[in-house]
Amino acid sequence: MDALNSLMDGFGTALSPINLLWAAIGVLLGTAIGVLPGIGPAMAVALLLPVTYGLEPTGAFIMFAGIYYGAMFGGSTTSILLNTPGESAAVVAAMEGNPMAKAGRGAQALAAAAIGHFAGGMVGTILLVALAPKIAELAVDIGAPDYFAIMVLAFIAVTSVLGSSRVRGLASLLIGLTIGLIGLDQMTGQQRLTFGTLELADGVDVVIVAVGLFAIGEALWVAAHLRRTSGEAIPVGRPWLDKGDVKRSWKSWLRGPVIGFPFGAIPAGGAEIPTFLSYVTEKRLSKHKDEFGKGAIEGVAGPESAASASAAGTLVSMLTLGLPTTAVAAVMLAAFQQYGIQPGPLLFEREPELVWGLIASLFVGMVLLLALNLPLAPLWAKLLRIPRPYLYAGILFFAAVGAYAVGGEALDLVILLVIGLIGFGMRRYGLPVLPAVIGVILGPAAEQQLRRALQISDGSFTGLVNTPFSVTVYAVVVLLLAWPLINKLIKRGSSDREDQDQDQDRTVDA
């Protein structure tokens, strides 16, 4: 009941005229940026982060919620219309949505995606309301060894799940950890990696890192591979679904959150895995299996619902533990830190108006998203006709202005370009970007918790594993590291048994 009462207070905050305006602006901006080719939610949020600096915290994060969900829907729009996923989680939407669009059913695909986002986001946010306060209460008792163990789990999980290999994921993480070391040592006050430059004593701002790696790196990568053609948008009519479409989709909309929310809440969960799992589930349960690959509406409805619920799940870890499980959550955590607010177990006690206003605004934002984007889908299609040279030139300009606005230092622009070149190099050699951002944000905090735990135990490493919680987390870490070897042994054992069975069959036949 306490959570329900707090949520009602949150609606009082979120439904005030000014906050309602920020939510609407966030939804529009997020969708407009996210709908452009190659720009996913993470880049959209990073680009628009400086826009919120002049707002008071509650209004800023309500606007952020709109940007987050609007950018997710925008990424799905590009996947469906142009077969250009704005992020990896939108790949599945392209698998069935683009064939639907080519068959003249782009309007139905967009409507199925929009309603899927609405249904998944609603169910996921309800679960967020129910679970987040409980998790926050439990997290109050977590000590330095436990926090360090959780951060190690996040590092290992994010390097294992993302990228084409663990080595590349680990290399990306090390880049982020190195950038995170720049500045003053939090415990001794010594300068590290500043090269005698006073401006670097405060470290590199996370916003500059995020914008550099995502926006500048992506713009340079696209420019290096730019073809002098601009894709023509597929005409989109008035979105609608007939009774047959609704009958085929409604179960998919409800199944998506069951798969998406848990994956969003765990470290390095994200929306990639649950969207693929949802797609496989829908294909297995559908009575129209022959349509998959040719434009099955269930293949759009289920994964999009799972992606939206996963987005709500990421907020559980971020708000209660201060752990970003996706790139968007990492950028939002940076925004919290800009306002001097540290997400964690005590956030619900110290900033109840902000937290519950933010959660209530998720409900408001999803209603606005559905109401605005169904009729505006043809407009988003026209935005896709912008020639890519102009598009990415605008991104570079916006990113530079945003980076300069962070600190007002010319050196920030140089750092932005250097980090952008690093982001370009990471794309060139197949290094995932998210581990680097996670390393920049969690690296200093992990170092602080490690040193704090060692101080408590007088320098003994046993102080890192002196609680049942930390031992359990490290057991999960070992399992994650050993799983490829275990999986390989299982496959080898099964193949050996098959060979033996075949030999026995040949002997019997002989």
UniProtKB/TrEMBL annotation:
Keyword hit for Transmembrane? yes
Q: Where is the DUF112 domain?
A: 20-437
Q: Name one Pfam family in it.
A: TctA
Q: Where are the transmembrane segments?
A: 20-49, 61-82, 109-132, 144-163, 169-188, 200-223, 259-280, 315-336, 356-377, 389-407, 413-442, 463-486
Which keywords describe this protein according to UniProt?
Membrane, Transmembrane, Transmembrane helix
Q: Write down the superkingdom of origin.
A: Bacteria
InterPro entries tied to this protein: DUF112_TM (IPR002823)
Q: What is this protein called?
A: Tripartite tricarboxylate transporter permease
